Amino acid sequence: MSTEDGERSGRPKEVVTDENIKKIYKIILNDRKLKLNEIADTLKMSTERVHHIIHEYLGMRKLCAKWVPRELNFDQKQ
Predict the structure, then answer these.
(1) d(C-alpha 2, C-alpha 63), whole Å
(2) 51 within a domain of the structure (yes/no)
(3) Which InterPro entries match (predicted)?
């Protein structure tokens, strides 16, 4: 009897990769009105991870049903 976990099939432990971050960024730029669930379904990721990537890595938030950068410059505010 062993106390160590054996290998299991399933999702990889780490889905926050540069490739996934770029994919999410491109998806958002194509359609800023997409919901987290729609992005997660497209990439076959959990909504929690997609939310984490958008907020922490891309620095975006939802505003009036559109994804926008969290820190807007003066021109963008106008």
Answers:
(1) 51
(2) yes
(3) Transposase-MT_Hybrid
DSSP secondary structure, 7-55, as one string:
P--SS-S----HHHHHHHHHHHHH-TT--HHHHHHHHT--HHHHHHIII
Q: What pLDDT is attached to residue 40?
A: 93
Whether residue 12 lies inside any domain: the answer is: no
Name the residue with tokens 């505010």: 77
Residue 6: inside a domain, yes or no? no
Among candidate residues 5, 42, 1, the one with its CA nearest the CA of residue 24 = 42
Structure tokens at 60: 């975006």
Give this prediction's pTM: 0.68
